[in-house]
Amino acid sequence: MREVSFGQYYPSRSFVHRLDPRTKILFLIVYIAAIFTADTFWALGACALVFLAVVIFSGVPLTSLLKSVKGVLFLLLFTAVLNLFFYAGDEGAQPLFQWGIIEIWEGGVIFTAFLIVRLMLLVLGSAVLTLTTTPVSLTDGIESLLTPLKWVKFPVHELALIMSIALRFIPILTDETSRIMNAQKARGADFETGGLFKRVKAVVPVLIPLLISAFRRADELGDAMDARCYSGSKVRTKYKKLSFGWRDILAWLVGAALLAGVILLRIYLPAVL
Questions:
Q1: Digit-coded pLDDT (tens) for 21-71
Q2: What phi and psi values does residue 146 have, to the nearest 5 degrees?
Q3: Domain limits of the chain?
Q4: Whether the predicted model's global pTM rises above the 0.85 cut
Q5: SS3 sequence of the chain
Q6: What's the chain's Rg over C-alpha atoms?
Q7: Is the dihedral of CA 64, 65, 66, 69 positive or negative?
Q8: 41-58 vs 246-268: helix axis angle to the nearest 10?
Q9: Which residues have a Cβ under 8 Å from the Cβ of 171 and sit 6 or more positions away?
Q10: Rounded Cα–Cα distance for residues 202 and 186 (Å)
Q11: What tens digit of pLDDT does each residue of 175-219 get?
Q12: Separation CA 121–CA 102 (nearest Å)
């Protein structure tokens, strides 16, 4: 579980690291919109090329990004199996493989491959944001983008802080879970053998100390914030103010070009779905 990279920060001075956090958040939104707008492999290929370019300019090792897929690997496999066996595609199509009640159609194979690529690009693109942005910068970026909501007395700063803390606690809790499981294994617990229900039952003793540890960390974090006289967004100033630069303008152009290109491909190329 320590190898799960989502929520962790990879320190560097790359092009992507130096982007304004607001630019990275907006670029991710545009990137996700392009992925879900794409309905052909050509459009997904364009999204993949932009993703590879971002990875190259971020300096983040590709292996660190691939580790983020482990957290949703079960979801990917489950979704792939469902679509592979239960999606037939066009009406009247003949199955490629049939054994009893199990049937696999060509449309199901194409749709499954398309869906897996789409989900992987989505997860990997989201992981780049957390790997190249510190929790503090991410909080400032979210708060700045949600500033208009302050006009309706919405607690923007508190919401941004909660989201940032939640992201930061992902690697902490995964590391804590691994430590507790190792301690349980040293006392004779078995998490790797037996059926599904036996494994689930073996994990139950891990949840109680994990919850206790999470509440203890939350209490310590609250005490630390109180000791530093934290009072929310009231009369708070910024040590480092966010500002856009030429890198951000270039990122906006790339994002706009990607979304426009995907829309044009959707219009002029037939869909695979």
A1: 999 999 999 999 999 998 888 888 999 999 999 999 988 888 778 777 776
A2: -95, 10
A3: 1-155+240-273, 169-232
A4: no
A5: CCCCCCCCCCCCCCCCCCCCHHHHHHHHHHHHHHHHHCCCHHHHHHHHHHHHHHHHHHCCCHHHHHHHHHHHHHHHHHHHHHHHHHCCCCCCCCEEEEECCEEEEHHHHHHHHHHHHHHHHHHHHHHHHHHHCCHHHHHHHHHHHCHHHHHHCCCHHHHHHHHHHHHHHHHHHHHHHHHHHHHHHHCCCCCCCCCHHHHHHHHHHHHHHHHHHHHHHHHHHHHHHHHCCCCCCCCCCCCCCCCCCHHHHHHHHHHHHHHHHHHHHHHHCCCCC
A6: 23
A7: positive
A8: 170
A9: 2, 4, 6, 7, 8
A10: 14
A11: 888 888 888 888 777 767 766 677 777 777 788 888 888 888 888
A12: 30
Residue indicated by tokens 């580790």: 67
Task: Please report, as a single letter, which amino acid is at residue 80.
Answer: A
Query: How far is residue 69 from each of residues 1, 48, 151, 179, 209, measured CA to CA in Å?
Result: 12, 15, 39, 22, 27
Q: Which residues pair with 98 in a beta bridge?
A: 103
Q: Given the structure tokens 């500033």, which residue do they identify?
A: 147
Only one residue has tokens 């919850």, namely: 211
Tokens of 4: 């799960």
**Contacts of 231 by beta carbon, 8 Å cutoff, 6+ apart:** none
